[in-house]
Amino acid sequence: MELITSSKELLTLLEECMERFNKHEVKPEKTEEYFFNQVKPSFERATTSIQIWKPLANDWIIKNKPKYIHVTQLDSTIEHIEQVVLQSFYRDINRQRFYNLHHSVEYVVESILDEMESED
Length: 120
What we know:
Distance between the termini: 12 Å
Structural class: mainly alpha
CATH class: Mainly Alpha
Protein name: DUF1798 domain-containing protein
Radius of gyration: 15 Å
Strand content: under 5%
CATH topology: Four Helix Bundle (Hemerythrin (Met), subunit A)
Order of helices and strands: HHHH
InterPro entries: YppE-like, YppE-like_sf
Pfam family, one: DUF1798
Helix content: over 70%
Number of strands: 0
């Protein structure tokens, strides 16, 4: 199923962000070169994944009506994914805030996967 594949891709993306965030001891310098060579390609990859995932997740939620996942959560989840990707490069965010954003996205995506598995 496409939603499963897309969700797993998002989880992989989140894991890469967590590794990148934890790898940086010092905030990297904000240069154009760093932005265009590192940040922009990753953000575009995330945006592409989000554009595939959101309509699939939206349709699945409307069709299956899971108890703890709602359509309104998708928009905030997408905003959080974008923040996680960007902040994983720059560390302009409190460590706890980053972990909370990461965890909230992970929770929604994994909840969808768990619900889908329990249907089978």
